[in-house]
């Protein structure tokens, strides 16, 4: 069982070690000042660089903006929901449609889709990456402290809408006992991403470097 102390420690570590964190705050400020598209591109260029760089030269900005507008009615359904209390099953098809649409865009794709979704609704959507999805060599996961102590199940999520939907449900179940108060700067959904990054993404990245 993940304790409140472990959770808080991870989010504090994230603030200390993840230098790109400031780009996230910049993106939030852009959205608050009605520069929504600019916020998405900032996050794609910094937190989804591995994919976005291959599409940046011919990225269809207008087309992307139109896709967001088309999805806004679905996002609006979730506007007042919160990660702790939401009934994900109620919105299953909406979430799958949003993820499927965004992930089909070159340069956004499967990691970027979760980041755009999070920026659209920071209280509901948790971001993921290839490490958190379980895409790396299994031996790396077996070395993780969080796996060894039984607080994380090694599971590989496919790049499919239904898998991202299941990921959200799994995260809700895994962190249901954590006492974290969301605030203007950091929602519970964002704090979960930080915990996952510190305990999964970063350690495996360090293993890869070695």
Task: Using brief descriptors, characterize the structure shown.
210 residues; mainly alpha
Q: Could you please describe the fold and organization of this structure?
A:
This protein has 210 residues and is an all-alpha fold. The chain has one domain. Helix content is 61%, strand content 0%. It contains eleven helices and no strands. Helix 5 runs antiparallel to helix 6, helix 6 crosses helix 7 and helix 6 packs across helix 10. It is globular and about 45 Å long. It starts with a helix and ends with a helix. 32% of the residues are buried.
Strand content: under 5%
Helix content: 55-70%
Residue-averaged pLDDT: 93
Quaternary organization = single chain
What is the total tally of β strands?
Answer: 0
| Shape assignment | globular
Poorly predicted regions: none
Q: Any idea what the radius of gyration is?
A: 16 Å
Distance between the termini: 29 Å
Number of domains: 1
Class inferred from helices and paired strands: mainly alpha
Could you give a short account of the major beta sheet? none
Helix and strand succession? HHHHHHHHHHH
Individual helix count: 11
């Amino acid at each position: 069982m993940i304790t409140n102390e472990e959770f808080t420690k991870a989010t504090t570590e994230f603030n200390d070690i993840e230098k790109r964190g400031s780009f996230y705050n910049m993106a939030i400020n852009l959205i608050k000042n009605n520069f929504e598209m600019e916020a998405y591109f900032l996050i794609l260029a910094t937190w989804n660089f591995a994919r976005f760089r291959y599409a940046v030269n011919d990225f269809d900005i207008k087309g992307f903006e139109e896709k967001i507008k088309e999805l806004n009615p679905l996002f609006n359904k979730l506007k007042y929901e919160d990660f702790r209390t939401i009934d994900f099953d109620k919105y299953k098809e909406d979430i799958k449609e949003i993820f499927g649409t965004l992930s089909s865009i070159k340069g956004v794709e499967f990691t970027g889709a979760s980041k755009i979704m999070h920026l659209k609704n920071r209280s509901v959507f948790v971001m993921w990456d290839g490490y958190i999805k379980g895409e790396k060599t299994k031996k790396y996961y077996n070395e993780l402290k969080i796996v060894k102590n039984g607080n994380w199940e090694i599971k590989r999520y496919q790049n499919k809408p239904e898998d991202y939907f299941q990921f959200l449900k799994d995260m809700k179940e895994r962190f249901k006992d954590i006492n974290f108060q969301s605030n203007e700067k950091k929602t519970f959904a964002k704090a979960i991403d930080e915990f996952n990054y510190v305990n999964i993404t970063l350690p495996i990245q360090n293993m890869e470097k070695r």
